[in-house]
Amino acid sequence: MKITNVIPYPIWIGSRNQLLVKIETDSDVFGWGESGLSARELGVSGIIEHYKDIIVGMDPFEIGKVWQRLYRSQYFEGGRTLTAAISAIDLALYDIKGKALGVPVYELIGGKQRDIVPTFATTSAPPGQEMIDQAKKLIKSGWQAFRLSMSSDGGSGEFESIYTKSRQLQNDELIFEPRESLNKTAEWLVKARDELGSEVVLGVDLHHRFSVAEAASFCNKLPSGTLDFVEEPIRDETPSAYEALRKMTNIPFAIGEEFSSKWQFVPYIENDLTQFARVDICNVGGITESLKVAGWCESHYIDMMPHNPLGPVCTAASIHFGASIPNFAWLETRESASENAGFSNDEIIKIDHKMENAMFKVADTPGLGISVNEEILKESKFKKWDPPQLKRTDGSVTNW
Predict the structure, then answer these.
(1) What's the rounded Cα separation, in Å, for the pair 99 and 369?
(2) Dihedral pair phi/psi, residue 47, rounded to 5°
(3) What is the pLDDT of residue 298?
(4) Cα separation, 388 vs 390, whole angstroms
């Protein structure tokens, strides 16, 4: 069997763009993958066009060899754009191999270690009583782990609602004031723990919007036991900054969704800086690289908590990954009682893994367990979209 074609589809699905990739072979078996570099899909699509010339003619069963060829095929190795493209190709190759052999992908990576994959959800309302009420609905629907909302600017909504609920400025610029946000968020997290009780797992995603001092101030406003994890309190480029923050709080960290290789995980695993690894299977290098990160984390007693804000292909691949490793906590999901993120469309992509009681039941469909209506993809269009650009009241730029 040989690879005959690689087709990128940067298209709008639901309420956002996604980059799907189809790999065809000379035996009529094909596979689907997905890239995770949100809002930069055209850049990744261009890389895939470069990679097409390299892998056409290669054996799709030699997944590890294809990965190495793609990663080592340029002088400037690595980087999120390259590994996002490699991720999509890697997933599609696993889909092909599973279909060709008539087995689900989890059988290719060690077999199932669990029959169901637990998930965590996220509230959508800004910090306040509505956020707590949404959390109570999540508990009734079966969720025992979820992220609560972060205030976007001290009163107008959490980070995902910032698209529509924050104070709008010209040119899609929005105000974000870290101190206002951390004060209001901390206040309502304390109230949420009091109302929701001690048994549920509570976290918050700070979306790397704070400095070390601001993040430490936030953590220190929370009584012990308020949170079970804080996600991305600061940016990841400087591991020593995380080392400093680690000394200032005892709240477990969830870090890694921005990492584009096992090498980027090095200081965070080896120095025990994170307790949950937020590996993104569509950015880090696919299933091939994710498995290496998971094994490394296992030796440091770090649980995997995959980042999954994307579409059904990413979800399906992450389910196979979660089913096949021992050190797994929860998979991020958008199928919650409190929100419909609109990242999926069953007319375009269907997933065979069904959610029951806040857990995905792992399907035994060959390959990833997804089906794609390619005719709709061919008719769909890419919509130019960028995240809102954040600034502070003094006019300075801050992180989205």
Answers:
(1) 9
(2) -65, -40
(3) 98
(4) 6
The whole-angstrom separation of Cα 349 and Cα 346 is 5
pLDDT in tens, 262-297: 999 999 999 999 999 999 999 999 999 999 999 999
- Of 111, 124, 86, 140, nearest to 290 by C-alpha is 86
Q: Any bridge partners for residue 397, and if so which?
A: 391
**What is the pLDDT at residue 33?**
98
Q: Which of 92, 118, 98 is nearest to 322 (CA)?
A: 118
| Structure-token pair, residue 67 | 């990965």
Residue pointed to by tokens 């800004």: 126
**All structural domains of the chain:** 3-104 (3.30.390.10), 108-367 (3.20.20.120)
Q: How far apart are CA 367 and CA 98, in angstroms?
A: 4
Rg of the chain's alpha carbons, rounded to an integer?
21
pLDDT of residue 385: 81
Q: How far apart are CA 240 and CA 220, in angstroms?
A: 20
Among the listed residues 77, 102, 98, 82, the one whose alpha carbon sits nearest the alpha carbon of residue 32: 98
349-361: burial string, b at 16+ Cβ within 10 Å, e else = bebbbebeebbbe
Placement of tokens 């003094």 in the chain: 394
User: Could you give the CA distance from residue 107 to residue 110 in angstroms, rounded to a whole number?
Assistant: 6
- Helix orientation angle between 286-298 and 312-324, rounded to the nearest 10 degrees: 40
pLDDT score at 153: 58
* One-character DSSP codes across 186-216: HHHHHHHHHHH-SSSEEEEE-TT-S-HHHHH
**Given this model, what pLDDT does residue 342 score?**
53
Q: Report the percentage of the chain scoring pLDDT > 70.
A: 93
Tell me the C-alpha distance between 215 and 146, whole Å: 20
The model's pLDDT over 331-363, given as tens digits with 9 standing for 90+, comes to 999 754 334 445 677 889 999 999 999 999 999
- How far apart CA 310 and CA 381 sit, in angstroms, is 18
